[in-house]
Amino acid sequence: MCLFTHSSWSTAHASGFERNEIFDCGDRLRNAGRKLRLRRHGNHVAMLTLKGPRLGGSHKARMEVETPVEYEAAKRILELLDFRVNETYSKLREEYRLDGCQVCLDHIPESGWFVEIEGKTEAQIKFLKSIAEALDESYLAMQSRVLSELEGKLKTATLTLDQLIEKEARVKEDEE
Questions:
Q1: Measured between alpha carbons, how far is 40 from 176 in angstroms, rounded to an integer?
Q2: CA dist., res. 10 & res. 4, Å (int)
Q3: CA-based diameter of the chain, in Å?
Q4: I need a labelling partner for 7 at 20 to 30 A (CA). Which of 31, 56, 83, 136 fits?
Q5: In sequence order, which ranges of 54-121 are alpha helices (DSSP H)?
């Protein structure tokens, strides 16, 4: 399944089920704002990733060191070093490339769709910021419009991106 049809997008170069395990030794890494993740994406090589603390700024950024590993061996090494899995999550992921950037579409059951865009060069980061600003504006506008329509009908409202998109589509249908 390819969610993007614009000619500048490639077809998905990776797609499928992904399982993530977050390891820690006690709460040593968590207390330092770090994460150690072992990721298995379908039949692809597993990836071991160390994420540093979040950096300042309006968009999520952090140091990340990643290396391909053999899943069973890496998991056993971590366990022998007293690291234990303290969190697991699974998702469906589609990965794309656009202008040298990695674009990942993730679907987490019961949570909805999420987009992750990564770039390394200054030009890529500038490009990503422009996308993020456009997404922030349209998402916030859509969220504000939907929440204002629900005002008074609900005591609290938490909407996933899927719910917002569905509601927006209904509004457009009603306008036509």
A1: 45
A2: 8
A3: 62
A4: 136
A5: 71-80
What's the topology of domain 11-92?
Answer: Hypothetical Protein Pfu-838710-001 (2.40.320)
Q: Which amino acid is at 129?
A: K
Higher local confidence (pLDDT), 149 or 86: 86
Per-residue buried b or exposed e for 49-60, using 16+ beta carbons within 10 Å of the residue's own CB: bebeeeeeeeee
pLDDT, tens digit, 9 for 90 and up, residues 90-124: 888 888 877 777 778 888 877 778 777 777 777 77
Kind and range of the H or E run holding 96: strand 84-98
pLDDT for 14-31, tens place per residue? 678 889 999 999 999 999
Domain boundaries in the chain?
11-92
Beta strands at 14-24 and 35-41: parallel, antiparallel or unpaired: antiparallel
